[in-house]
């Protein structure tokens, strides 16, 4: 769902990194001298939302099944990363509104074969328990659910190699941010910008 204005508040804590470079460095960091692929949780509903909107606002002639093709190319790029990707999808109890937009009560046509999970809470829990090393999403509320490291999915098509990486440590030590998880919860409770 996201918390309005939170990414802006946390901007000074972000570190822009090349996704391949980031996953390689983190793979070695997590295991010392051996390379252990990191486990990257991906908010699949964001990928589907972006695929649907990329085609909607495009002036190009997309051809047949443009949304599926975009998802295919994104997914096909993942094996090049030293990371295990875990996709988490929206479950049956989605909120009525997300990012100021009314959410359809029936499932997205791309999700018919997927499990019923609530991605933000589940991804946050898996990351906070150390089951995942990084969560890739655009929903800022993932930080409230305890994800210690978040890779912000780029919004622009030409930025697909670079990601903004937010860590709980950077959010706490960045002088202009300096927030703990409790501080993030208070910001969310007050409506962020206040």
Automatic annotation (TrEMBL):
Any GO BP annotation: DNA damage response
CDD domains in the cross-refs: PIN_YEN1
GO MF annotation, one: 5'-flap endonuclease activity
XPG N-terminal domain sequence ranges: 1-105
SMART domains: XPGN
Gene3D superfamilies in the record: 5'-nuclease
Domain of life: Eukaryota
Stated name of the protein: PIN domain-like protein
